[in-house]
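Standup notes, protein team

Yesterday: finished cleaning the Streptomyces badius set.
Today: DNA-binding protein structure.
Blockers: none.

Input for DNA-binding protein:
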Amino acid sequence: MVTVADRLLTVNQVAERLGTGLRFPRRLIEERRITFVKVGRHVRIPESAVEEYVSAHTVAPIVLRPTAAYSYRRAA
């Protein structure tokens, strides 16, 4: 949810924060996959929306335990 205290980021700032090119956040906006605010003809993305997007798309690692079928032998 967007609050008044939320800092509004430009597309360039979002791209830098995500470590992507400009095209990626623009595509998120075009496909309505991220919350954005129209300020006149300008588009701004709330910081909280970027944080929500990252947390929603974060994949936790799977911890595998060694089994009897798998051993730690040296290769060749």
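Follow-up from PR in the comments: The chain has three helices and three strands.
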